[in-house]
Amino acid sequence: MQHAIRTKFTELYKQQPQLFRSPGRVNLIGEHTDYNNGFVLPAAINKEIVFAIALNNTQTINLYSLDMQEQASFELQSIEPSDIGWANYLLGVVAQFQKANYKIGGFDLVFGGNIPIGAGLSSSAAVECGLAFALNELHGFGLNRMILAEMAQKAEHEFAGVRCGIMDQFASLFGKDGHAVKLDCRSLEYEYFPFDMSHYRIVLCDSQVKHSLASSEYNTRRQECETGVAILQKHYPKVGSLRDATIEMLEKHQPEFDPVVYKRCSFIVQENNRVLDACKALQENDLVFFGQKMYASHAGLQHDYEVSCPELDFLVEQAKQQSSVLGARMMGGGFGGCTINIVSINAVDDFVAAMSAAYEQQFKIQLPTYIAEIVDGSSEF
Ligand code: GLA
User: Fold this and answer.
1) 161: how many CB neighbours lie within 10 A of its CB?
2) pTM above 0.90, yes or no
3) With a 6 A CB cut-off, is 34 part of the ligand 1 pocket?
């Protein structure tokens, strides 16, 4: 991929680029907790976006998407959301530097990658983070990775219209080979946990359902959580987010809640607890317990948070029937994308064959599967 991107770059722009990469992510557990100031446990994976980039001493940015085989140019003095979907993730990042008064020079760019789009593996965050990382390096701004993650997150809010949390951008920039990383989304403190892959593999099953519903429903979920916080705040002024809430608080005031809002809030409180339990399990190398937490997470996402879909539920049910699988659940925003499965290393082939056959029979859809390896976050090649 690097080669194709470099070749395209020199062909288009007749100069030599610098090459950068930024990965997609899995999330082991802790879904929809990030924008509730809670805990998440993602890891960067070996599906990534590669960038060839160089400054061009003009006031123009020239962008080329290798995957779409499409080019677009924009003037730096008038960066705003464009009709070209893929360009918005890049323009959004440029706009964040400009807003923070970092002077961006014109540049030439070719990018492409192997993160399946709409599969819940955060291809958009990888694009945003890769460009933020590259621009920071090219201009020598010296911004740290957390600031870059926050800029990339704002790019998603303002240019893609999704009020996402920080998890995906954090994971792309802070990933570490062989480790999952627990992030406290309130304090932004993080801790790496070795994820022992000697006996297990992370296998992703791509439902092929594109999560087009996701952005509007996502924003609705956020709203529902905020409604819940407002109710609790009347009684507990210190509750600034669902991170500060407990099951006892919710139960005590249940009659004041709309039933849907109640379900959403209780899911978030439980999911936060599950991340803490899961991290403890990792420390004790108890992947069996870890897997049970994943199944419980899925059940909550399916019934209480209601962000799953029949295809994802089917995949998790099928996984549950196999003794080689420790845990499985839907991953990311929901309404499609991948399930994540922890599968015994010597049963991976059988697992993939059984899942593909079952899925094809049920939905007449071929099931792509990916074995995810955990890699480092954004870097220059
Ligand atoms: C999407 C968002 C993340 C996070 C997940 C759900 O991936 O971008 O910020 O909220 O959904 O956990």
Assistant:
1) 12
2) yes
3) yes
